[in-house]
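Justification of resources, computational component.

The compute hours requested in this renewal are based largely on the per-chain cost of generating structure records like the one below. Each record pairs the submitted sequence with a full structure-token output. That output is archived, and it is also reused by downstream analysis tasks.
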Amino acid sequence: MSKTYRIPHRRRFASLQSPFATTTCLIYLLLIELIQPSPNNNIFCQASWIDPDTPQDAQTVSPLQVVPAPPAPKHAKHDDDDDDSDDKKKHHRRRRDPTQTPTFYPTFEPTHFPSIAPTTTTPAPTHPERIYNLVFSDEFNTPHRRFSDGSDPRWTALEKNDYTNDAQHYYSADNAFTDTEGNLVIKSESTDTEILGFNDVKHKNERITKHFKSAMLQSWNKFCFTGGIMEAEMALPGRHDVGGLWPAFWLLGNLARHTYVGSSEHVWPWSSSVCTDKSRTAQLVSACDRVEHYGLHTGVGRGAPEIDVFEVQAGSIKANKGAFLKMPVGQPFMSSSYQVAPGRIPRPGEGWWPAPGQWYNNLTGGMNTSMNIIFYGTYNHFRDDTNPAEQDYWSDAISYNRQLNESHFGKFHKYRVEWEVPEEASKKNNYTKSYGYIRWFLDGETVLEVKGEGLNASGTGAEISSEPMYMLLNTAISSQWGFPEKCPSNCPCKTYNCRGGYGETCGFSEGFCDMINKPVEYKINYVRVYQDKNDPKQKVGCSTPERPTRKFIEAHKEKYMQKGDLQPLKPIQNGGGECSVAAPMNATLPQSCGGTTRGKCDVSRNPPTCSCLSNWTGPYCLSQAAHDDVIWDPVETLADLGFRGPNLKGPMGVMLAAFILFAVTVAPIVLNNKKKRRKGYSRVPDYEHLVGA
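The structure output for this chain reads:
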């Protein structure tokens, strides 16, 4: 088994920030090899994911307390109730409990009106306060960073058309950058992009024009984590009362790469390790599998569940109006969700409050929230499936909407999710199984808590995610989200183009084109992730011992790439960006390679290009170097497969080196001369001999 070495006395949040530190690290590794030589040692000496600009008071956090909404109001008085009539009191019969069919009203208790948020109150925790340590941060303080493939160790900005969810946008890497105020900016704009490519949904090549550009950043297969706390401070884009933008902040299991549709089929959003007839046929890697492939464990179902910290919908439709007629929360709102498969059957119809037994228990909503009765999940069917009855499946969106207001758009607020991984009963936990939970917060106030006990009680086999998950930040523009619910009269609603005629502009929400004709910006001040170092379930890494992903992705890499890609991700470029000796060397600019503390302009090359100093990377040396502290699933070597090479130290090593040198230099010349003589070639006489003749 391969060994993993940590650098002793180095804090988890320390970074190698100087040439001296890097040199010390390398010397340390050399000493280990001299003291304990072994061809089976995989030694890793890498920078961590912590941004040195993270404030000291943000190095640790503790979980927040879940505060539920107050109890629902009492029932409205019925017309046939008469408090002054003893006879009617005596003979009045209570209404029977609601039937098991969907109703317009919440049926946790029979009421005439939906409660503020149907809740299950949970007592405050009594265990000692847990401390979570920072394991990842990006403060975005270095301006002019770019995130195209190969430019940044933390994030990849897609350069790709989005075929999902009736997307009207093209994702451009140029629309994601850091500004001079310490923010990541995702810019959405009205501009055309001509696309000739393969439609992942229709499975055909096509030429189309997208009339909007935006950006998506992913940490896929770079930074992933399993369990912990994630927090970000953000200012939402656009106007609170104009629908059409779809900003989001979310997590997805590493086995699926969003917008690469092939990687998601029968993978999204499965989180189940129970073998059933449905999982056997509908889950790509199910607990029914008894043969171990790609390093995946037998009897362990795999997938890519989704945790939406938020999906925000702006607009002017208020609570108890229009599409939100039966809900106490209207536009603008943020939707916080756990999307998971397999889904429940029977299930409530969209727009109806669930009847008893139709939905999950152990859900706690906070103030100004409501169960999202407009969207309960998705029916998943894929065109290449040959047996839809067995292969199709429902996935559930366990979701609450939180009312927002004008201040959330353009002003910074803190969004947070706390994720506790399930744990099987064992001696370590006194043989007590825990089902985990997910909790959402806005500015420290509870939005939603989903407890794993509720998923377990549903009987579907779904559970809180144990998958390594990666982060996504994006703004989409989709006709499914915030656009008018019904197409206006005489409007085709087929093409959406703010610079077109009436037939291309009539389908937008009022004011949308005026808003986006001047680019709108989604700003992120920081993203931070914390974990409990005393909890072995919580790990950093995209391929962990419990949930490996590396070999599976390598074996199916075509599902994670676009046509023409050589690899799913390019290696991170270290320097090489074109620079200028005329640029001010102390300025944090691409042309000056980030300034004297980050890189230098190498004028010995033509044209001059950037050369990065220690702990800085990217083509213009503007990104902090970052890697996993621990490699749980290292690339296998011949030693891992049992091969033991010769000991190359001492005289034997010198003799072998001399033999190799002879084999690659002298031997080819000798063999080539023999080959020529066999073919009748003769040696040309010396030049002096020819002159003498």
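The chain has a mean pLDDT of 85. The longest helix spans residues 651-678.
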